[in-house]
Amino acid sequence: MGLQAILFDLDDTLLWDEKSVDIALANTCGYAAEKAGVDEAKLQEDVRKIAPEMYASYETYGFAKKIGIGVFEAMWANFDDPGEDFAKLRETAMHYRVDVWKKALEIQGCEKSGLAEKLSRVFGEERRANPFLFSDTIEVLDALKEKYQLLLLTNGSPDLQRAKLRLSPELSGYFDAIVISGDFGIGKPDTSIFRHALSKLGVAKENAIMVGDNLKTDILGANRIGMRNVRINRRPTDETDIKATYEIAQLSELIPLVKRMSSEVYG
Which domains does the chain have, with CATH numbers? Predict the structure, then answer.
């Protein structure tokens, strides 16, 4: 039996999250420069350095890493999700997003009252105001939807990932199922979430592929259960020794690849 189902990652596979963060950060630092005369480029540089270091220092980091919640996601997410772990993360994030800006401002000697708090709000507003899909996302989903079951398999806070989908409402209707790590309890690359996703579709691993940009989550997890996978490598790098079954430079290259795979028997 040939290919029946395609599992897609969300962030930086279909949604251009990196661009959204870049623009939100640039606009927020521009606001700070206008209001306080700080060096905009230096502020950006310092925030990018401080944020991951501070994020990893909190008690909640283990849970955030387990679910797959990114450094800059915690800079704007509400984390309005049930459970004690999300409650702790929600409280931590409120301090984190202010403290990052406060420390970055202090490096330039800026201690303007209330500015860090204001920048933390501006960043969230800018991130929400700037959602982007890759230019070929809809083209690819249109081409595949009628022939294959499609499932969205994404790491993160359910509240945040659903907020991203609301900001790009054209996406959700393409998927037969959506699996979010925060709902399931653990994220990619754990094999259990991949098996859970396949069970939602009633499809064997031999008849499905995983499509994503991240070697350490999307590709590693699929490799671990023996499922074929496609890595979208838009900026070629040799990040790790993890190897994808197939590698493409743009999402649109998936269409001819899937046509070839659909006639193959695997397993």
Answer: 5-16+133-261 (3.40.50.1000), 17-129 (no CATH)
